[in-house]
């Protein structure tokens, strides 16, 4: 069960239990202070649940937008200039060989490609369905294996001589 699912389940349990407790307390003549405390707990749990559900919806929309943008980019016609096509193929080959030399794992290779395409760590985590912390750790491992200090050095390693 994912962390979000567990949190939502726990909040639903709090909401149901608080609602049942308030109903029971009303029948037993509980003090207004106790009812106010229970009402506050119910309100906070409901608000937190709504905020989490809204955040998850926004995240899902962002994933769909990013996926759509990547699909659109893949559908763009390739340049017809043979020299440019050859340069793209050679760069792709160079990247694959260098990733192999650096000993990148398959996940690191995928993250490396997305970094070079200019995606943010958050965007990569959304696309891959992985925690942003995991992507940050993978990016750090990539930079360390490549012997560079960060994203700019990583990108420059591949394109510096072309500029």
From TrEMBL:
UniProt cross-references to InterPro entries, sorted A to Z: Sig_transdc_resp-reg_C-effctor, Tscrpt_reg_LuxR_C, WH-like_DNA-bd_sf
Keywords of this entry: DNA-binding, Membrane, Transmembrane, Transmembrane helix
Keyword DNA-binding: yes
Record keyword RNA-binding present: no
Transmembrane regions listed in the UniProt entry: 35-56
A GO molecular-function annotation: DNA binding
Occurrences of domain HTH luxR-type (ranges): 101-158
Protein name as catalogued: DNA-binding response regulator
Organism: Shewanella sedimentimangrovi
């Amino acid at each position: 069960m994912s962390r979000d699912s567990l949190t939502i389940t726990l909040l639903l349990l709090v909401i149901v239990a608080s609602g049942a407790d308030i109903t029971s307390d009303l029948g037993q003549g509980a003090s207004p202070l106790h009812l106010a405390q229970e009402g506050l707990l119910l309100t906070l749990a409901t608000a937190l649940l709504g905020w989490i559900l809204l955040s998850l919806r926004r995240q899902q929309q962002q994933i769909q937008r990013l996926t759509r943008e990547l699909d659109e980019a893949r559908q763009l016609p390739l340049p017809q200039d043979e020299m440019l096509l050859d340069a793209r193929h050679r760069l792709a080959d160079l990247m694959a060989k260098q990733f192999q030399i650096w000993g990148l794992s398959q996940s690191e290779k995928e993250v490396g490609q997305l970094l070079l395409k200019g995606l943010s760590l958050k965007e990569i985590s959304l696309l891959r369905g992985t925690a942003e912390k995991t992507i940050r750790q993978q990016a750090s491992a990539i930079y360390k294996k490549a012997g560079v200090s960060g994203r700019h050095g990583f990108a420059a390693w591949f394109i510096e001589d072309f500029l």
